[in-house]
Amino acid sequence: MRNFIKIAGISIEISSEAPFKMNRKTKVFSTSNSEHLGLKVFLQYNENIIIPEKALLIDDNTYWNNGKGVQEEATITIYNPETKQVTNQLIANKQWNHAVLLYHSSHKNSLNPFFEFFGEILFRNCLLFHQGMVIHAAAIEWYGKGILFSAPSGTGKTTQANLWRKYKGAKIINADRPAIRVIGKDSYVYGTLWNGSSKKCSNLSVPLVAIVLIEQCEGNVIHKLEKKEAIEKLMPRCFLPYYQEDLMNLALSNIEQILNQVPVYLLKCRPDREAVELVYQCVK
Hints:
nine-stranded mixed beta sheet; 35% strand; Phosphoenolpyruvate Carboxykinase, domain 3; eight-stranded mixed beta sheet
């Protein structure tokens, strides 16, 4: 069984020996075009998935094994400490454009795991090779222009996006994990499958004209950041491959390219219309 989807302009083939479930979000990104594939993923059931030697435990149940040689593969393994069983494992090549996703046969009736944790990690790393980056942000489209609102969870990025929808008629592209790509002399923002708790996904893409970093404040004030300060404040909002040095270098290069093209503003604000108008004056 094979299916094709396209996210951020990257064509992805997902195949399996057995049928797998496709969720409602996936239909938004489905495509019949199998040419110029950027990523191939094969899903496979396996009863005896093992944790690689020298794998690093990066949280309570996740192991990371970074391939050292040119041909060696990177591996991410999910282990259930209660059942003492490995439930899922992602094995990806060095370019992150070909991967095998193993999962225990007890999970064969579950949702296709590509659309959950593993697919997100795989897509993020693949995107790095296409001059791209996934950012923790709410992205909107306003009259053909893309604007990102980024901040720590609970600070107000989605609130600002919704205020733009209310007062300016904007459309929300993605409320949690949009993608950015540099293509030629422009940067573009894209919707992705991964959208936090929101059930809605958009396959929109538009030129990115501004990144707005949000801080809560009793008043409303905005100013444009110099590049150095913009990098310092934006990096914590990016999903970075901390456990693989070569990918990290690529990610930093992509961030620099994006900031060479897109202005970054710091908006200290209340959740009101005046905050919307401040940003509007910068992007109109």
